[in-house]
Design brief:
This protein is an alpha/beta fold and 172 residues long. The chain has 6 helices and 6 strands; from the N terminus they run βββααβαβααβα. The protein has one domain: TIM Barrel. A 4-stranded parallel β-sheet has the order 3-4-5-6, with helices on one face. A two-stranded antiparallel ribbon has the order 1-2. The two termini are 31 Å apart.
């Protein structure tokens, strides 16, 4: 497993304008037990074992989302990075759009924590920074287009992200 990425070298990525050492990105959607009915289950010990194997094989790009496994995925990713003390060696990409509070507050009762509108973006970034216990998010993007009349167009999305970029809480 250790030589999985051997010879791949650094990849130049125009979005990041820096090297990504890992050509394989780790999707954290399966980390957790909350979605066991349709995804199976992965407890924390198994998740950490998989994350260690990925990182030890030169993996450094974690893709997560504000809602994966009812927010448990990002919490475990944070715990793993803290245990490994490797946050500065990891590119954390995360997404917003999905209703990440419906599991605890009830479906239809969380209009501000879903969709592509400004309030959803602001709440998601606030909560993502807390869950990941990090000072910044390397990449934030839409999980999917919500086709809402109040959804953000590209220019609105960039304007909403701008204050976070100024405070260096959001890199891309």
């Amino acid at each position: 497993m250790a030589d999985l990425f051997h010879g791949a070298g650094a990849l130049s990525h125009p979005l990041l304008n820096r090297d990504i050492r890992s050509p394989l990105h780790f999707g954290a959607m399966s980390i957790g037990t909350a979605w066991s009915e349709f995804m199976g289950t992965m407890d924390k010990a198994a998740a950490f074992k998989l994350l260690y194997a990925y990182y030890d094989a030169s993996g450094n790009f974690l893709d997560t989302s504000n809602n994966y496994q009812n927010e448990k995925s990002e919490t475990w990713v944070r715990e793993w990075m803290s245990q490994r003390d490797n946050r500065d060696q990891i590119v954390v990409a995360t997404k917003f759009t999905t209703d990440y509070r419906a599991y605890s507050l009830g479906k239809g009762k969380t209009p501000n924590s879903c969709g592509n509108h400004k309030r959803s973006l602001l709440m998601s970034v606030r909560d993502l920074l807390k869950k990941l216990q990090t000072d910044w998010i390397d990449i934030l993007y839409l999980h999917w287009w919500d086709h809402s009349p109040i959804g953000l167009c590209h220019n609105d999305f960039e304007r909403c992200r701008h204050p976070y970029k100024q405070k260096i809480e959001l890199i891309y």
